[in-house]
Write a structure and sequence with these properties.
The chain has about 325 residues and is α/β, with parallel strands linked by helices. It has 6 helices and 17 strands. The strands form 4 sheets. Strands 1, 2, 3, 4, 5, 6 and 17 form a 7-stranded mixed sheet that branches. A 5-stranded parallel sheet has the order 8-15-9-10-11. This is Thioredoxin reductase.
Length: about 325
């Protein structure tokens, strides 16, 4: 293995979990490399304003990501982004990551922080209004819609549960669901139906988001009749599922039925020396703060793992 391409720890993913791991590892004098397929920041950069990060009253997701990146680099972490990871060899003691089918990086330990993405509905204008009226997180953005009228898209447990939780902010909530029945547990359905702020548009879907600087209205199509109507709205929350970015990890590390990485309390996977953190792991709550916590634990555990390997190597040489 080439010395310049060998690291104590490689972190795959440059979102909140990956950057936090980079900060902790580099500060602990671990030679650390972060490899990120897209732009640094992950899901954070899609959030126009983060108002629930402890110690910071309000900050944009982009700015928080920028600060985290600068912190990691200050401690010596090397960060490479906008690349393609083409091969992973993680079963042996030395982990190998191939980038762009040519560059090979090796390490004693590896942290997977590939994150995930909310399932989108694919309507016209959805990408343009993400963070500008469209949200996929009630906990993150509910407070921005105080006394506003909003739509919740979905018919599963999370959609109905989050719709009820959003009633403490919004003045009116309309649940738009493509079927004539819900997929949620009955008590969630009953709770939503009993709430005076919640209305329903069934057998329908949003086909277009419309606005200028921010979302102003939507086009809704009835699935049975094909009829299209417009509705003025202040915001739309979409809860139709979550997809972890683990497609390249199938058959490599243990995943659950939802393709999330299974980890223990130390963020360790089933492979020795391979850890995982953030939105790609099996967990209930996905917030910037929980990703930061995961990244911290994974980094400390990985550093301990690497130090033990180095001690063994020194002992073997003696």
């Amino acid at each position: 293995m080439e010395a310049q391409n060998h690291f104590d720890v490689i972190v795959i993913g440059g979102g909140a979990a990956g950057l936090t791991a980079g900060i902790y590892l580099s500060r602990a004098k671990m030679k650390t490399l972060i490899l990120n397929e897209g732009a640094i920041g992950g899901q954070m950069v899609l959030t126009h304003e983060i108002a629930n990060y402890p110690g910071v009253e309000s900050i944009s997701g982009y700015e928080l990501a920028r600060i985290m990146k600068a912190q990691a680099q200050k401690f010596g972490c090397i960060i490479k982004s906008n690349l393609k990871i083409t091969k992973l060899d993680l079963k042996d003691e030395i982990k190998k990551v191939t980038v762009n089918n040519k560059d090979v990086y090796t390490s004693y330990a590896l942290i997977i922080a590939t994150g995930g993405r909310s399932r989108t509905i694919g309507a016209i204008g959805e990408n343009e209004f993400k963070g500008k009226g469209i949200s996929y997180c009630a906990t993150c953005d509910g407070d921005f819609f105080q006394d506003k009228e909003i739509i919740v898209v979905g018919g599963g447990n999370s959609a109905l549960e989050e719709a009820v939780s959003l009633t403490k902010y919004a003045s009116k909530i309309t649940i738009v669901h493509q079927f004539d029945h819900f997929q949620a547990f009955q008590h969630y359905v009953d709770e939503a139906k009993a709430h005076p702020k919640i209305n329903f548009i069934m057998e329908s879907k949003i086909i277009e988001f419309i606005g200028d600087e921010k979302l102003e209205k939507v086009k809704i199509q009835n699935q049975r009749t094909g009829e299209i109507s417009e509705m003025k709205i202040d915001g739309v929350f979409i809860f139709i599922g979550y997809i972890p970015n683990t497609e390249k990890l199938e058959g490599i590390v243990e995943l659950n039925d939802w393709k999330e990485i299974i980890v223990d309390k130390n963020m360790a996977t089933n492979l020795p020396g391979v850890f995982a953190a953030g939105d790609s792991i099996a967990k209930r709550f996905r917030q910037v703060t929980t990703a930061v916590a995961d990244g911290t634990i994974a980094a400390l555990a990985a550093a301990e793992y690497v130090n033990n390997i180095k001690k063994e190597l020194i002992t073997a040489e003696v």
